[in-house]
Amino acid sequence: MTTTKAYAAQSETSGLAPFSFDRRAPRPDDVAIEIDYCGVCHTDIHFAQNDWGVSLYPVVPGHEIVGRVTAVGSDVTHHKVGDVVGVGCMVDSCRTCAACESGLEQYCLEGMTGTYNGHDRHDQSVTFGGYSDKIVVSERFVVKIPDKLDVKAAAPLLCAGITTYSPLRHYGVKPGHKVGVIGMGGLGHMGVKFAKALGAEVTIFTRSESKVAEAKHQGADHVVISTDDDQMQAAAETFDFMLDTVPVQHDLNPYLNCLKFDGTHILVGLLEAIEPPLQAGSLVFKRRVLAGSLIGGMPETQEALDFCAEHDIRCDVEMLDIHNINDAYERMKKGDVKYRFVIDMATLKAD
């Protein structure tokens, strides 16, 4: 075991503060990683503050991890000391069910093991995430960071990136398709970049007139102000796909009406009940599909990173001193970040 520096929440009201714990020694299939950067996801806030009622304290958040390999177990074949690698939202799964055998570990029939707030499948210890100076992970759940990528901006690709890449690839977005992206945050701006790189015509739907110029800067072909009835009416029945990145309850019905027949509305942000209720006729009479998508499996996560390297796609980030993490959480709640905080772990190691 090795002593590990970290930041943790001790309760739903404590905020994050310095914390130390022991990381396990590498098992035969493990990779030990010194963490250089860790992205900050809205999910981190939910777990730190127990918004979903499932937090296991202390919570060490962080599932957008980039670092360098410092040691490998005896059975490791895909990584070596010195490699720049990444760890995303999961660190294990059953590995034998139909989903896992298909490279869709995120849909493991026994449930994936989260990078934090999960239970290790071997010793039942609670997993601690990337707001720490080191981590030990099975090589199956470690990806290579392509040389061409900026390592700082690569960290959020392991959650915000794959969360938007996976559904666009799964549902077959290609040149000629019209894609609407609902929301202009960390997920939304990545959705625009991926949909454009796949050849689609992309429209951002936003409630804020102030985001029009920024949406165009991110590469959107068009912008629709969703609170403007005339603009929404003009958009009716024109889209093949809607990528919905909004993480809070919102009315889906106006967006469903923007889809063509056989169009697909994909939820990647909302995990709560849909409110107000859906008008089922919007689905039935146009054979529209309401779908959901959760990150990606390990092969697809590597594919997404390679795609970003090939198409020069990066997440827009603001670097963060870990001592300011609680202030960053408050800014994130207000939408005051473009578009992802990334913790420079040198600020932790310097303590």
Could you walk me through the main structural features you see in this protein, from its secondary elements to its overall organization?
Helices cover 25% and strands 27% of the residues. The protein has 351 residues and is of the alpha/beta class. The protein is globular and about 60 Å long. The chain folds into 2 domains: 2-159 and 315-349, Quinone Oxidoreductase, Chain A, domain 1 (Alpha-Beta Complex), CATH 3.90.180; 161-292, 3-Layer(aba) Sandwich (Rossmann fold), CATH 3.40.50.720.
Structure summary:
With 351 residues, the protein is α/β, with parallel strands linked by helices. The chain has helices at 42-48, 98-101, 151-154, 160-170, 186-197, 212-217, 229-235, 253-256, 280-284, 298-311, 325-333, 346-349, and strands at 2-9, 16-23, 30-40, 65-72, 84-87, 90-92, 113-114, 134-138, 143-144, 178-182, 201-206, 222-225, 239-244, 259-267, 289-292, 317-320, 340-344.
Label this structure with key terms:
351 residues, alpha/beta, Quinone Oxidoreductase, Chain A, domain 1, Rossmann fold, 7-stranded mixed β-sheet
List how many beta strands DSSP finds.
17
Largest sheet, in brief, is:
7 strands, mixed
Instruction: Give the number of helices.
Output: 12
Strand content: 25-35%
The percentage helix is 10-25%
CATH architecture of the largest domain, by name, is: Alpha-Beta Complex
C-alpha end-to-end distance:
21 Å
How many structural domains are formed by the residues? 2
The helix/strand class is alpha/beta
Rg over CA atoms: 20 Å
Shape: globular
What are the secondary-structure elements, in order, as H or E?
EEEHEEEHEEEHHEHEHEHEHEHEHEHEH
Q: What's the CATH topology label of the largest domain?
A: Quinone Oxidoreductase, Chain A, domain 1
> What are the low-pLDDT stretches, counting only 5+ consecutive residues below 50?
none
CATH level 1 class label of the largest domain: Alpha Beta
Q: For the residues shown, what is the average pLDDT?
A: 96
Q: CATH superfamily membership of the largest domain, which one?
A: Medium-chain alcohol dehydrogenases, catalytic domain
